[in-house]
Amino acid sequence: MSLKSEIQLDRLPKHVAIIMDGNGRWAAKRSQERNLGHEQGAVAVRQTVEAAAEIGIEFLTLYAFSTENWNRPKEEVDALMNLLVRSIHNETPTLMKNNIRLRAIGNLDSLDQKTCGILNEAIEKTSKNTRMTLVLALSYSSRWEITEAVKTIAKAVQQGQISVDEISADTVKDALNTTFMPSPDLLIRTSGEYRISNFLLWQLAYTELYFTDVLWPDFNKEELYKALIDYQKRERRFGKTSQQLANTPK
User: Fold this and answer.
1) How far is it, in rounded angstroms, from Cα 39 to Cα 69?
2) Catalytic (active site) residue 69
3) Which tens digits make up the pLDDT trace of 79-101?
4) What does the DSSP 8-state code read for residue 138?
5) Ordered strands of the 208-211 beta sheet
6) pLDDT less than 50: residues of the chain
């Protein structure tokens, strides 16, 4: 029996973010090239996106390519970019069929022209979809994002649009790439690593963290359901006490 039946649909996280890790190790365990792991990882993406949309997740953010990933061997980077272009092109009809909107965050100007073209075409084509928003973090790092936000705010101060004393947490939030979506309620990281890896550092302040030993190519709907069930067992206090939460009107 599927674990899906154990999930409380009225207590779903609104936003789930995933650090998809373990493609290379999955391939190495099978004495295969790393690119095969990335290919199988794309299958896991499809299953996870479908499962998240089916169950009612509103936002799903996938850490697809970090700024640090540019330091990998050129042939692997080229293969990843080709896979990305191919996947976006092939999956756009499925996104349309399932009413899923595509967005992207990161230093998209660093992507090659072909990748940007395919990505922007898919974003535009799916822009009116409302069932779920799928966000791809591409050439993304949180330190880059926060640095860019600081520059934006500094320019606004320099131009007299805002004073230093008016800068607040909301000012920073509105200057980030992610201003269009809520902070994640749940972060999942696969492959047994216990790191955030420069991902959504500002946004993860009160996010529940879930780590699994499962390598990303082996992640599927049931693994997502396990993470959701674990999330629903937790008490989210946001700095308050359990007693305060118990006394808060529903």
Assistant:
1) 17
2) yes
3) 888 899 899 999 999 999 999 99
4) E
5) 100-105, 132-140, 59-66, 15-19, 186-189, 208-211
6) none
